[in-house]
């Protein structure tokens, strides 16, 4: 880090920002898991689309657009009217849909319009940001950001005791493991769903 970023008065607020972002990201895992349950149940909205239910829209399915292993394959869902949506599906589900040569399906959306799944070839598939897959990714990203933030706060407080608020020293001298360990753990958790699904 440069000398400007190796000062406690910069590291402390930066750490707090990362902590808050990490916390909100991890808390979003609850919503992802709940929407995964809604997709699994296939709970559709009635005449009034509100709450936790699915809006079903017939779509033309186009994809995947690349074949390398990634978080999931990108598929384009094109309704007869309205704008097309691009969704990412877990690898195994994407491979099954690709093998079935799917061209038609039903897009599953939240009442506010966010796409949470696809129904095609006789199966319902949640996107990579929904269900257990999405929940694990959000917890991993939250831990990554929150861990980085907590590490920066610890380093800033240690550095402040050593050199004051405006002095600077190498971050490594004040506990780079406090920064690195949670970040590595968060990264591993963020990547884990890619190897399971």
UniProtKB/TrEMBL annotation:
The keyword Membrane applies. Keywords: Membrane, Transmembrane, Transmembrane helix. The keyword Membrane applies. The chain crosses the membrane at residues 139-157, 177-196. This is Integral membrane protein.
